[in-house]
Amino acid sequence: MRKPDGKIVLLGDMNVGKTSLLQRYMERRFPDTVSTVGGAFYLKQWRSYNISIWDTAGREQFHGLGSMYCRGAAAVILTYDVNHAQSLLELEDRFLGLTDTASADCLFAIVGNKVDLSEEGPGDGGQDGGHGPGPAGVGAAPRLPKQVQPEDAVALYKKILKYKMLDEKDVPAAEQMCFETSAKTGHNVDLLFETLFDMVVPVILRQRAQGPPQTVDIAPCGPPARTRSGCCA
């Protein structure tokens, strides 16, 4: 198998919808609720580049694997649930340190998922950035008060820049890197991934100029098995 030219990694607490986001984009569907065990990946061809996208487990027992999957990453998608403020706090407290093994010029996207469940979010019919019809409104879950606002995500992005000792003038603006999505309806999912793919290409070129990338070897084995768990929209 050809080695990927670059790597994107999704990090975040369990049940924020990392797997669902990735499957919505790659398979054009909203999957049954699943919990990732260890890690799983997809390969995406973007222009002439092969990009691996890694889905990591949010459960505490798999936490230590995150730094291995982040090794040499060109971009990290830090994912939270807009309806649960603690999931945003966990990104800083538990997951940011795992990105220390990523490339020095790694890009960071802050993604608030499950806006379809929020009182302020788009309806099930909204397909901004997605393809295919959303689920019918029959039996839809009750809407929840939105606990995380876009400015909270922007504040976290700026904290990350300080943690990484990066100058705001040298990286994409927070407004470009903070997204609100719905894996269920497809809202902003294409926009998220394809914005990152375009931004990752220059990172790949810089990494090539600096020498062979550090990547997780994906040739010997496929994705690990998944187990069912609670809601992961």
From TrEMBL:
Its main location: membrane. It catalyses: GTP + H2O = GDP + phosphate + H(+). The keyword Cell wall biogenesis/degradation does not apply. Its cofactor is Mg(2+). It is a lipid-anchor. It is found in: Cytoplasmic vesicle, Phagosome membrane; Golgi apparatus. GO terms for biological process: cellular response to type II interferon; endocytosis; intracellular protein transport; phagosome acidification; phagosome-lysosome fusion. The keyword Magnesium applies. Keywords: Cytoplasmic vesicle, Golgi apparatus, GTP-binding, Hydrolase, Lipoprotein, Magnesium, Membrane, Metal-binding, Nucleotide-binding, Prenylation, Protein transport, Transport. GO terms for molecular function: G protein activity; GTP binding; GTPase activity; metal ion binding. Pfam families: Ras. Its EC number is 3.6.5.2. One of its GO terms (cellular component) is Golgi apparatus. Belongs to the small GTPase superfamily. Rab family. NCBIfam families: small_GTP. PANTHER family: DRAB5-RELATED. This is Ras-related protein Rab-20. It comes from Sus scrofa (Pig).
